[in-house]
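Board notes (copied after class):
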Amino acid sequence: MTATPLKPAEELAALRESVFPGESAEYAAARRALMAEEIEVRRHLTRLAEQRQALPPGPVIDKDYRFRDEKGEDVGLADLFGDHDTLITYFWMFGPQRERPCPMCTNWLGGVDGNAKDIKQRAALKILGRSPVDRQKAFAAERGWRDLDFVQTIGDDYAHDLGLLNDQGFEDPAFTVYRRDGDTIRLFYAGEMPAAAADPGQDPRGPIDIAPLWNILDFTPEGRGTDWYPKLSY
């Protein structure tokens, strides 16, 4: 099947109509140029999604990682899928050595909680942490989160194998998607952007920023900035 040819982005941007009257010709021209770029980026992101979805089968997860769920039961990775064949996980920085969880992880999970019910219609969604589930849920209650499913990693094999825990107990977060095919579980996708790949003046981040906070701030004149980060309280 041949894809429908796309019209040039500049041609589509020329259809723009101002939302408010009184803009200068300079603003109108700059906004049309920006819209053309936005159209190109949208198309690029669509191609990225298609390329991601077309990844060949990833490595088989054959190690018996163990977890403790909200019922206190010892379960394996396969059990976290529930009725779905896709499992979305986020390992957050809230190990037993931390008095409070990572503010960045907290910010991201706050946005995910608002979408969790919808996400779980399409895939399983589990939040993994090294702290007991009750401790994770107590913090969730403090934040008003209602729809996230927390799981404790039993032991540190999972965190060590994914490179999320060093010998000093310092944790890194991880966004990881698994796919189940019968009795076989494979890695589908993991956020793997190394720190060395960060552009000058930027924190390491993937091609799609999954945190709503940064996406919204990117629409402001000041942008996300270079020295501001969210806090647990203000």
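Comment from the instructor: The mean pLDDT is 94. The two ends are 54 Å apart (CA to CA).
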